[in-house]
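for the writeup, i need someone to sanity check this before i put it in the appendix. the sequnce is what the collaborator sent (i think, or maybe the updated version? ugh). structure was predicted straight from it, no edits. if anything looks off just tell me and ill rerun, i have time this weekend
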Amino acid sequence: MMPGIGFTEMILLVVVSIVVIGPKDLPLMMRKFGKFTGKMRALAFEFKQGFDELGRQAELDELRKEVEELKKSTGVADLQRDLEQDQVNLEKDIDSAMQPAALPTPGAAPGTPNGAEPAPAEAAPEASAEAKPIPNYAGLSADHPGYDTGEEPLPEPVPVAATEPAKQDTPA
């Protein structure tokens, strides 16, 4: 039922419409009234949908603005720029490491740059003539048992001589 119109008011409207319109034209009038009511409801529904769409668009615009502000405040663009710069630097380092090193010239002394003269022999101290042997520490020589693992070698087992059990003095 419609608000504000009770059962008695509806019966009064039906009686007045029968008297005024007549029983012959009443069904045609009711059909036209139903079509008009349907069109009004459809217009109201479209109007409501339009406002809802505008509200959603406004919310989306606000969300987009918030996302842009968050991107600016978190510095996502700066992080991306830094990552790209690091990638370029890494590629340069890899490329420079993969290039072949300059080979020394055949006449140059080892450890000297190409074309440089070797250091004079007089600069070496005389103590080098009496070179002391380098002790063989673990990990320094392949001859050492602990070379691969860095572990100390186990000591040689000491043979144990068989001994007789000690006799206990017991009073007889």
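The chain has a mean pLDDT of 75. Residues 24-98 form one domain.
thx in advance!!
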